[in-house]
Each structure stands twice: as C-alpha cells, then as structure tokens.
Design goal:
Elements (H helix, E strand, L loop, with lengths): L5 H12 L5 H8 L3 H13 L19 E9 L4 H13 L3 E6 L6 E7 L2 H10 L7 E8 L10
Helix pairs in contact: 1-2, 2-3
C-alpha cells in the first residue's frame, strides 16, 4: 500500500474536482514545483491510487429525468443466485451502480431512466422477471445537494 501524505491528499482532492487541471496549475494549488507535482501524480497512478480519469456527465442533458436507489433482496442466498443476479443487472443499461451489501437485503442499485414510465418498464420487464428477486424497495432521488462521485 502506498503511503499517502497531506500533499498527496491535496493532489487527490484537486484532481477529484478537476481531472483536466494542468500540471502547472495543480502544482500551484498544492504548493509544489511542477516537476515534483508530476512525479507525485505519476506515483499515485503507478500505485493504483489514481485508477483513472472520467468525465462527469449531466444526466438531464443525456435524457435522464428519473434517478432512484433500489434495495434488492434475493430469495436464495447462494453464490450462484448472486452471480445470476449480477449478470442480469450488468446487462441492464438503466443500472449505473450495483453494490453487494450487508444487512437485510443483498444489493443496492442506482438506476437511471428517462422518466417514471421508463423506470416502470425496467422494474417490471427486467427486475420483475428475475426468479431469484424476492423484494425491491425503491427510493426516488428528489435532489442531490452533495454528490462527489467522479
């Protein structure tokens, strides 16, 4: 595991906010010379701390008007049932996140659809057809005052 100091944390925070910042600007923001900053970023990339860079997309501009988190319970608690469920949700474009969690249910999904009828179609035609799904609880996102996902 790579040892991360305060300057590395500043670099990571700045890159999380703006992954396209130039090395010159990044160095100025964290108080390093450009060469020292570049070496640190390259080391963080080599060590896998920085796993990649991505664009932050505007859901509305992409036609997404409905976002929900779903708690999904399975009626079988076997590895095979989990694998079947994971394969099915991997193929569903509406599912943008899938987390295997602990507690009273097995999965937490983030689902994005154009609108409520689009979500209903996903709920009925995708999740509703999976034989090992025993419960679905939907939490509709009404707003996101903080969302630091990159």
């Amino acid at each position: 595991m790579t040892k991360i100091d305060g300057i590395d944390r500043q670099i990571l925070r700045e890159l999380s906010r703006d992954g396209r910042v130039t090395n010159l600007d990044l160095a100025a923001r964290v108080g390093l010379s450009p060469s020292a900053c570049l070496r640190r970023v390259q080391e963080l990339e080599r060590a896998g701390v920085i796993a990649g860079y991505r664009a932050v997309l505007d859901p509305a501009a992409m036609g997404v008007g409905f976002v929900a988190y779903l708690g999904v319970g399975l009626n079988e608690h076997t590895k095979a049932a989990q694998e079947r469920f994971e394969r099915a949700v991997t193929r569903a474009p509406e599912v943008v996140e899938c987390h295997n969690i602990t507690g009273t249910i097995e999965y937490l999904l983030r689902v994005e659809a154009a609108d409520l009828p689009g979500y209903k179609t996903f709920h009925t035609d995708v999740l509703g057809t999976l034989p090992h799904v025993s419960s679905i609880t939907t939490y509709v996102v009404m707003g996101s005052p903080k969302d630091d996902r990159a």
